[in-house]
């Protein structure tokens, strides 16, 4: 089995030590950090996701796999992002209320840091009011909202409505994303932008910052 395939298997089994060792081996063999992330770590989680959907594995197994994936992507962080980037803007990110998924959010955060954002992470299951108060507390240029469930997509609108009702609109650009979210949905709920993946979220945030400058 190739190192990348072993990596995918180690994520599915939630073996943190093996994941870290295989990442070192993969880098030493000449694989790129992006390849190890996409074809190893994320592919492993995607395969596990299919088994999760088919009720072949359950929440505890998926949780240990998520932990292994998060540890693995933290390890890859210095290889994925340019070092020594000066902070160019501020961002606040979080997963909306009712939603505990954080792997995608963590990747978006990592990419934002790589493009020179100072990022405050509010975590998961974040109430609308906390996003609202973060606008004054951290004064971000960009507010990023992540939702992974069809049942929590509506919460994106609820956060935007809460900010609008409090007169907070215009304090920061609001970007939304997550697997079930689409560009059309983002427009419908009045978001300022949508990105399908972590790298394009960072690019879009950066271009919004440049436009505002
Ligand atoms: Co959940 N889960 N889960 N889960 N889980 C999904 C999302 C699901 C598709 C699985 C399935 O049934 N096939 C399904 C959702 C179905 C739906 O709504 N249509 C599902 C379900 C149903 C559930 C529960 C309800 C299961 C249950 O309890 N019966 C439950 C809900 C809990 C809750 O949130 N309240 C639940 C729980 C969990 C765990 C806690 C066990 C765990 C999360 C652990 C964690 O995150 N720390 C988990 C996981 C890991 C998954 C899967 C397997 C993997 C998700 C993931 O991290 N993918 C997932 C199945 C799958 O995706 N194949 C599944 C990798 C990650 C990199 O991708 O997050 O999409 P993603 O991020 C992408 C883009 O979406 C984008 O960038 C990233 C890539 O670059 N992106 C943004 C994300 N946020 C962005 C923000 C942006 C821009 C882009 O700008 C602001």
Q: Work out the number of β strands.
A: 5
Walk across the major sheet and give the strand order: 2-1-3-4-5
Which percent bin holds the helix content? 55-70%
C-alpha end-to-end distance: 50 Å
Morphology:
globular
The CATH topology of the largest domain comes to: Rossmann fold
Could you characterize what this model shows?
With 213 residues, the chain is of the alpha/beta class. It folds into two domains: 3-82, Orthogonal Bundle (Methyltransferase, Methionine Synthase (B12-binding Domains), Chain A, domain 1), CATH 1.10.1240; 89-212, Cobalamin-binding domain (Rossmann fold, 3-Layer(aba) Sandwich). It is built from nine helices and five strands, in the order H-H-H-H-E-H-E-H-E-H-E-H-E-H. The chain has a five-stranded parallel sheet, with helices on both faces. Strand 4, helix 8 and strand 5 (193-194) form a beta-alpha-beta unit. The longest helix is centred in the N-terminal third of the chain and has 22 residues, at 59-80. The protein is globular. The structure holds CO-5-methoxybenzimidazolylcobamide. The site of CO-5-methoxybenzimidazolylcobamide has 38 residues, from helix 3, helix 4, helix 5, strand 3 and strand 4.
């Amino acid at each position: 089995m190739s190192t990348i395939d072993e990596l995918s298997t180690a994520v599915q089994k939630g073996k943190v030590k093996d994941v870290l060792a295989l990442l070192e081996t993969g880098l030493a063999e000449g694989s790129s950090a992006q390849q190890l992330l996409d074809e190893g770590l994320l592919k492993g989680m995607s395969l596990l996701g299919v088994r999760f959907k088919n009720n072949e594995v359950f929440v505890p197994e998926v949780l240990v796999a998520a932990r292994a994936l998060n540890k693995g992507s933290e390890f890859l962080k210095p290889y994925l992002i340019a070092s020594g980037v000066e902070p160019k803007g501020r961002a606040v990110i979080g997963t909306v209320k009712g939603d505990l998924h954080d792997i995608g959010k963590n990747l978006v955060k990592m990419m934002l840091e790589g493009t020179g954002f100072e990022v405050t992470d509010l975590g998961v299951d974040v109430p609308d009011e906390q996003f609202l108060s973060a606008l004054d507390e951290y004064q971000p240029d960009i507010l990023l909202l992540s939702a992974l469930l069809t049942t929590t997509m509506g919460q994106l609108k609820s956060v935007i409505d809460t900010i609008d009702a409090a007169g907070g609109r215009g304090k920061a650009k609001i970007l939304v994303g997550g697997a079930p979210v689409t560009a059309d949905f983002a427009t419908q709920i009045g978001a300022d932008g949508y990105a399908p993946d972590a790298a394009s979220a960072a690019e879009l945030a950066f271009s919004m910052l440049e436009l505002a400058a």
